[in-house]
Specification:
binds ligand LHQ; about 260 residues; alpha/beta; 10 strands
C-alpha cells in the first residue's frame, strides 16, 4: 500500500497521508513521495490541493522508529531532504493548498498543515508542538509560521510546553481557519477546495506570493510588490472574465488562466 494516496478529480489534487497504523508518521519514503506528489500538482489540470490524513490522525510527525534505526536516513538529512522541501513546495505551489486536519497533527505533521494556505480541522482534531518533549526544536517552518499566526508569546508557550491544542481552541486563537463538526467535516473541507478550484487560480497564486513576500518586506516595499503582482493579475484571462461577468450581470466562468 502506498504511503501517499494521490488522485486528481475536478481540478483538485487529493493527497492523503497514508500510514494510518503509525498515525501517518513520516518516514523517508513517505516524505519523498509527498514531495513528488506536490510536484505532480504543477499541471494545468490542477487548481487546488487538498491534503489530509487516512484513518484517525492527520500526522504524528516524524516516525520516531526511523530516527533510531541505524539504517535510517540520519538526523542530518531529515530536515534538508524531507521536511524543508515539503513546506517549501507547499508555499511555492501556484495554487491554494487546503489542509484538512482530520485528527491529531503533531510535530512536523502540525507544521506541514499550518504552512498550508487554508487550514480546517475536524472538531476532534488537535495540534501539538511535540518537539520539546523529545528535546528538539519546532521545525518544518514552525518557528516562522506559528508566531505569525498566533503571536510570539502564545507560540513560545505552546512550543515549550508541548500542550495539545484542541481544534476549537486552535480556531479561536487564529492558528487555523475553521473547525467543522466531525460528521460534516470532510464534506465542508472538500467544498472549500471545490470553491477554490473554480476561482481565478492565477490571482490566488499571486495573492499567495504577496503573502509570502510580506513576511520579509517593509510596508513600502510591499506596496511596490503589490503593484507588480497586481499588474500580473490584471493581465490574466480570469480578470477579464471577472470584470465582464460583473458588468454583464452573469456568473463568471474562470478557467485558471
Ligand atoms: C508513532 C508516532 C511517531 C512512530 C505515534 N513515530 N510511531 C525532525 C528532525 C528529526 C528527528 C525527529 O523529528 C523531526 C520532526 C518531528 O516531527 S519531531 C516530533 C515527532 N512526533 C512526536 O513526537 C509525536 C509522538 N506521538 C505522540 O505524541 C502521540 O502518539 C500522539 C499525541 C500523536 C497521539 O497519541 P494517541 O492518540 O494516544 O496515540 P498513540 O500514542 O497510542 O499512538 C498510536 C500508535 O502510533 C502507537 O503505536 P502502537 O504500535 O503502540 O499502536 C505509536 O507508537 C505510534 N506512533 N506517533 N511519531
Amino acid at each position: 500500500m502506498s504511503s501517499i494516496l494521490f488522485e486528481i478529480r475536478d481540478a483538485i489534487a487529493f493527497i492523503t497521508l497514508n500510514r494510518p497504523e503509525k498515525l501517518n508518521a513520516f518516514n523517508r519514503e513517505m516524505a519523498l513521495s509527498l514531495q513528488q506528489k506536490l510536484d505532480d500538482c504543477k499541471s494545468n489540470e490542477v487548481r487546488c490541493v487538498f491534503l489530509t490524513g487516512a484513518g484517525k490522525a492527520f500526522s504524528a510527525g516524524q516516525d520516531l522508529a526511523e530516527v533510531v534505526d541505524p539504517d535510517g536516513p540520519g538526523m542530518q538529512r531529515i530536515l534538508s531532504e524531507h521536511y524543508n522541501p515539503i513546506v517549501t513546495r507547499i508555499r511555492k505551489l501556484e495554487m491554494p493548498v487546503v489542509a484538512a486536519v482530520n485528527g491529531v497533527a503533531a510535530g512536523a505533521g502540525a507544521n506541514i498543515a499550518l504552512c498550508s494556505d487554508i487550514v480546517v480541522a475536524a472538531e476532534s482534531a488537535s495540534f501539538i508542538q511535540a518537539f520539546s518533549k523529545i528535546g528538539l526544536i519546532p521545525d518544518s517552518g514552525g518557528t516562522f509560521v506559528l508566531p505569525r499566526l498566533i503571536g510570539w508569546q502564545k507560540a513560545s508557550a505552546l512550543m515549550m510546553l508541548g500542550e495539545k491544542v484542541p481544534a476549537k481552541e486552535a480556531e479561536r486563537i487564529g492558528m487555523i481557519y475553521k473547525v467543522f463538526g466531525d460528521d460534516v467535516f470532510m464534506e465542508n473541507a472538500k467544498n472549500i477546495a471545490k470553491f477554490l478550484a473554480a476561482m481565478p487560480t492565477k490571482g490566488l497564486a499571486l495573492t499567495k506570493q504577496a503573502l509570502n513576500m510580506s513576511f520579509s518586506s517593509g510596508f513600502e516595499e510591499q506596496l511596490h510588490d503589490e503593484d507588480i503582482l497586481q499588474q500580473r493579475a490584471a493581465s490574466t484571462e480570469d480578470y477579464k472574465e471577472g470584470v465582464n461577468a460583473f458588468i454583464e450581470k452573469r456568473i463568471p466562468k474562470f478557467r485558471g488562466i
